[in-house]
Inverse folding.
C-alpha cells in the first residue's frame, strides 16, 4: 500500500487561534482537530514511494508560477447539502482573481503527470470543521458559522501532507507534513522532506 497524501494550504497559527476561539464556546458538535485544519488543493489516495521526488519537483514548478497571495476565511457550508449535512466547513473569500483555483489545478496536474492519480472531484475550497454522525439539517450551525470572518493572511507556501488513517487522537487520522514548498519565483528554493 502506498502513501495517502494531499497537497494543501495550511493555516498559520494566528488564524487557527482565531477560529479556535470562535468555536470553543460552541458545544454540540465534534469539531475537527485545529492542528489539522487545511485547505486541500489535491488529494491522492495511494502514491508509490518512488513517485514522491518527481511529485515534489513538479509541485515546486507549479508553486514557482504563483506569487504569494492573501486569503481570508469567511462563510460556511455543508456537504452534501444543508438538509442532509454530513460535513460542515468554512469557506474562503474568493475574488475573481484569487489564485487558489489555479494553484489547485496546477497541483492536480502535477499529481497526474507524476502518475499519482488525484481525486477527480471538482475543486471547492473549504476547511472541514466537523463531521456529523449520521446526517441532519445544518441550518442552525451554518447561521452560527456564517458570522465568522478571519483576519487575512499571506499564503507563502503549499504543503505535501501524508495522512495516516486511525493513528491520530480519538481514532482520527494523523497528518505529517512531508514537504513545504514556497510560492513565487524568489531565489530561495527549499523543501524539507521528513527523514532526510
Amino acid at each position: 500500500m502506498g502513501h495517502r497524501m494531499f497537497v494543501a494550504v495550511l493555516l498559520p497559527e494566528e488564524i487557527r487561534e482565531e477560529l479556535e476561539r470562535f468555536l470553543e464556546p460552541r458545544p454540540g458538535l465534534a469539531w475537527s482537530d485545529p492542528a489539522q485544519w487545511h485547505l486541500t488543493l489535491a488529494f491522492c489516495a495511494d502514491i508509490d514511494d518512488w513517485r514522491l521526488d518527481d511529485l515534489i519537483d513538479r509541485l515546486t514548478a507549479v508553486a514557482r508560477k504563483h506569487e504569494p497571495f492573501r486569503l481570508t476565511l469567511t462563510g460556511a457550508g455543508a456537504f452534501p447539502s444543508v438538509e442532509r449535512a454530513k460535513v460542515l466547513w468554512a469557506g474562503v473569500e474568493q475574488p475573481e482573481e484569487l489564485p487558489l483555483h489555479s494553484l489547485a489545478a496546477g497541483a492536480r496536474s502535477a499529481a497526474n503527470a507524476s502518475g499519482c492519480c488525484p481525486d477527480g472531484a471538482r475543486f471547492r475550497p473549504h476547511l472541514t470543521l466537523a463531521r456529523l454522525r449520521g446526517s441532519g439539517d445544518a441550518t442552525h450551525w451554518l447561521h452560527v458559522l456564517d458570522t465568522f470572518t478571519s483576519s487575512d493572511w499571506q499564503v507563502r507556501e503549499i504543503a505535501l501532507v501524508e495522512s495516516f488513517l486511525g493513528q491520530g487522537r480519538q481514532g482520527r487520522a494523523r497528518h505529517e507534513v512531508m514537504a513545504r514548498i514556497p510560492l513565487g519565483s524568489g531565489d530561495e528554493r527549499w523543501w524539507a522532506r521528513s527523514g532526510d
About this structure: The helical segments are 13-23, 52-64, 100-113, 139-145.
